[in-house]
Design goal:
By secondary structure, this protein is mainly alpha-helical. It is 57% helix and 5% strand. The chain has four helices and two strands, in the order ααααββ. A two-stranded antiparallel ribbon has the order 1-2. The chain is rod-shaped.
């Protein structure tokens, strides 16, 4: 059987330790051993702060996620939707506009001077401007 040794604690601290020990461990010795092992294996001091708690980390993450969502919505509104609309317009099929054929200048002037009458024969229109 192991021998015991007495350690002196203030009453307030001893009561806190007893509550903690009864809640989480079978004996006070096991509780003290687990606490010492925790600090030894994790190479931390009991006086150090471990950093933010899970609740504060969760709150910070939610804020950052909301910020990222806002950025994505803004990008979608200002860049993605207008670009998609422009691309869609480019790929829409429209009937090609009928453009008149490009003819030589001489042929166009000749057509202006001559017109077809009802029987299909050419009719000369008087040229108001005599050639110079």
């Amino acid at each position: 059987m192991d021998s015991f040794i007495g350690i002196r604690f203030k009453k307030k601290t001893a009561k806190r330790f007893r509550k903690f020990s009864q809640k989480h461990f079978k004996s006070h010795t096991e509780a003290m051993g687990a606490m010492l092992d925790f600090f030894f294996y994790n190479e931390i001091s009991p006086r150090e702060k471990l950093g933010p708690t899970a609740r504060t980390l969760e709150g910070k993450l939610l804020k950052r996620i909301n910020a990222v969502i806002a950025i994505i919505r803004d990008v979608e509104k200002t860049q993605t939707k207008p670009t998609a609309a422009m691309i869609e317009l480019l790929f829409q099929e429209e009937e090609p506009k009928k453009k008149p054929l490009i003819l030589e200048k001489r042929l166009v002037e000749k057509k202006k001077d001559t017109q077809l009458n009802d029987e299909g024969t050419e009719k000369q229109t008087p040229n108001l401007n005599p050639p110079s």
